[in-house]
Amino acid sequence: MKNVCCNLCGSDDWRVRYPATLPTDNQDQPDVRAFRCTSAGYGFHAQIVQCNQCGYVYANPVWDDEELLALYGAVEDETYVVERQGRRLTFNKHLQDFEKHTGSGAGRKMLDVGAYIGVFVEVAREAGWDAYGVEPSTWAVQEAQRHNLPIMQGTLDTPEVAAMRFDAVTMWDVIEHVSDPQGELRKAFGVLNSGGYIAVHTMDIESRMAKLMGERWPWLMAMHIHYFSQQTLAAMLERVGFEVLWSGAQGRYIRLNYLSSRIGGFNATAGRLAERAFRGLGVAERAVPINLGDLFTVYARKPY
Known about the structure:
alpha/beta; seven-stranded mixed sheet
């Protein structure tokens, strides 16, 4: 692992916000299962610090860039496939909200960064966007291509992606995973046409829920290495050159059976009881909206 400076202001002046809880062997040789999108490894994380100069929160030290990319390239996550219904409902709602700013997608090109198995790309194409995705996980790309979705293997550095230009870029639950989020936003800025839009969705470290739960907040996890607030993400987007249009809390849809597995990440007995209750009531497959206020989205635009 390596020590890093604040990704927002560049300062090396920080204080510990949450001490590391990862076992020593996992710090040096992380378990790839902890980097699945559906990992329930709540409460296990590297040391999390806060910049004394600008308030930005991030993991420090962290794994080096090559190791992180290798971990995400090796991820396999069948649970995500099972939860496809909830993801489609969530992404439909996200796209409808995004289009209030972008307008219709007819005849316009979009890139979803960290597209995983391509659910958002599928939803956007159905809505008329000429949508593509880029994703490091070999398994996820193969799963997406099995559904005939145009998902490219790699990252924003992939030559095929870097050579293209888009009218919109989306990053759903991605920015908190990358080693250099400001660098990724600059790359997104570079592939956008003038007047193009970006949507960035992540967790809010300064939300009421995060403050209430403290060290028990479930999003403190090994795979999350950057912890934004609405203020710090807006500041980073503006530093890159974007004009922020809107920022606010946005929840998601979750099948109750999947929710019981998330509860099980905290307490195995409670998770089993929830699963039995949902199945007994015949609602295990029902998707319900959940918004605890600790997930948010920012929409921004590249100036003309």
